[in-house]
Task: structure prediction
Amino acid sequence: MNQVATTEPSSGAEQFLTFVLGGEEYGVTILQVQGIQGWDRCTPIPNTPDYILGVINLRGAIVPIVDLRRRFGMPAAEFGPTTVVIVVRVATERSERTLGLVVDAVSEVCNVNAEERQPAPDFGAGIKTDFVKGLATVDKRMVILLDIDRLVSEGLLGELSVH
Amino acid sequence: MTLDLTQFHDAFFEESFEALDSMESALLKLDLGAPDSELINTIFRVAHSIKGGSATFGFSEIASFTHSLETLLDELRSNKLQVTSPTLDLLLKSVDAMRDMLRAVQTKSPIDTKRVADLQFDAEQILAQRNAAAAASVATPNGANVPAGSETASSSTPAPAAASAPAAAPAVAAPPAPTDASSSAPATPPLSRPATEGSSPARHWKISFRPYPELFARGNDPLRMLRELAELGTLDVETSFESLPAFKELDSQNCYLSWSLELTGDVAEAAIREVFDWAEGDCALDVVEVTAAAASSPAAAAVDDDIVNHDLIAEFDAMMAADAAPKYAPVVAAPSAPAETPSPPSAGAEPVKSRTAAEPSLAADGKTSKSEASAASGIGDSGSIRVSVEKIDELMNTVGELVITQSMLSQLGKNLEGPSSEQFRLGLAELERNMRELQESVMRVRMLPISFVFSRFPRMVRDLAQRLGKEVNLVLNGEHTELDKTVLEKIGDPLVHLVRNSVDHGIEMPDVRKANGKPSFGTLRLDASHRGGNICVEVGDDGGGLNPAKILAKARARGIVGPNDVLTDAQACELIFMPGFSTADTTTDISGRGVGLDVVRRNVKELGGTIETRNELGKGARFIITLPLTLAIVDGQSIAVGKQNYIVPLISIIESLQIKQGALNRVAGHGEVFSFRGDYVPVIRLHEVFGVEPRAHELHQGLIVIVEGDGRRVGLFVDDLLGQQQVVIKSLETNYGHIDGVSGATILGDGSVALILDLPGIIRRAGAGVRAN
Result:
């Protein structure tokens, strides 16, 4: 699955849902987005990394909520009226999982053509760009395209699925 | 108008499989000699409905086979034939064969016609014997019942079989009666054992060895057998890959190969058969001598072999099939023709009377098969419908959502003001009550009696014991204990393993038992019972038991236990659950106990259960599995710690209390304990384990909940107790992962999520923390 995602077919446009996080704009493949909902309190889970805010009830399923700001090491921000949870479906080696990503605000759905995309630059060892699928220019703005599958399998839920 | 019958296939298969299960259990309940006519009726109904169904759907092989079976059963039913051990064996084998045939038709794979024909011939053979006996006793009045019974009862001795052979042969070959056939028939009575006595120095044997797929599972190794054969003489081996499936479908546990062997040398048939002794019942084996005198060999076999019938038929059949010499053609028609077409030529093979009796019912089948089928599958329970599990799960989810909505409404209703608010509240109370009932009913739908798992054991134990030459008496208790379907499905394999272990290694051979002053038959007990919110399944035998000293020695030798470690007997017995304790080496030394037991324990643990052993050397061993009744629902007590609510499974709560200031003692400056009814119970501060900010820091300000987990008692320090409620367990692992100290989550009335505590996990965790300090 990871391979499929990183070696995307070069032709054709792909739709991304973009959102704002600490002033930067990120995008996730729309096919993986299940829904967007307002931020509500969630139940904390003990002894988990701080970016796991807890779990919520999503139509009867228990879904973990990830604070993307903390996940990316950004300073935490107060949750305001625009704070939303993007519910995404991700594929790991063994199963499909649903999780919610808390972001500052959603912006739009945009088409990204293959020629508008470029691979993630190498920032050196200091900055991890593993889960950056690439960069794209949309309306002269830069959008960081996220590889959520990778975000989940590496380091997010990865260490937990070992159990 | 053509009706697409394929849409009914699934229902037919499901019903048939279920019916076969009930047929099998009825067969196992059948007493030799004095059969319960109700049971025979049950068995007959099954065969009949399967026949009807398969005829309707055009599964002619099954229809034909069940027809022969029905004929035999009809004789049993009308008391013309007594139930004997060989007959019972044959019927049980037929159940297996029908199952396999159905499965084959279901998966559209070829049917093992050979095996079916063998069995069919067996069935006809038994009938022919009966007829022969009946004919012999025609002179005696009322002879039909008693002499027939006594004759067939002793059919494991050569005499009646030999007598029946000529009786059967002319019956079959009568109309065409070519000279060769008639000369071969009289050749049988003299029984001069020409094959063994008049043996030429180099004899040529054709052996067809076709193992059933489960051969390996019974511990047989074809390679070893072939090597052994090669030692007897010159062996030519031809392997058939016919039934080898595509790589994807390949199950490494199954044997797909079969062999055609040609053995030349001075070998007696018994010697060849001895090689396959252990595989008996796990393969189709035909041994045929290829000489001009081939015709006499079956007769010899009939004398030699104690399983006269089967081998005789197998030989006949193989000989005919292999040689296909025209001179035997009339005889071969008997076993194979019914398998293909239930057409007139086969009629000669069956007693005329029962044939005519069966005819009208066959005609009526098309119409009555449905009602017959439901009658057969409805044994024990009156009326049921088949629903897929997904539908039930869906229903349960919806009900869960409804419960949440309902409690939301209830909360709203409490604050409602106005003229009709009282009525509204009454309505809400009604709704709540109905809701609870609805939820419970849906939960109950998923509960099944454990007999679904237990039902396979009588057969398994019977077969195993027979193969091992042991006498085992299986006692089942608490078959009606209900548990959740998911638990039920997962408990089957571990139990099979334990039962097999007990029969294989626990219960000793009869002579050993007698020497030890025990009854020659061993007793294997399977008990199921509810204990609190758990189900307890116990597998116990009165065999040799585990030998802790031997296990310990073995463990030391393997480096699992250090040379200076001292273990109690109970601890030593625990070692058998260690992975890697299941090597071949161990198998011989400590009689194999421990093989795969680590897998059993892992499976049980995955279900949230425990397994323990109770052992008494020389008197037997018991394995006790404790499992949660259901994985879907738990009676919970809500507790509050700081702002968080948690659910504690009610069954693990012993008592809740408030302790007085100063009632606390410290051990080594760290561990807090307090005296609870004379026992010192350690205190676990839940807020510390979960890292939340509590409302109360002093123990006397909050509450202590005494809980039990992993056999230990601890006091959980919490801020407050809230309500008790049944909660639906939702997995955290579906979307997240395992969390120490948390067994799952649930959705509360207000739609929020609460975590369900895993007490053994918390106790372990807290224990580890104390040790680390």
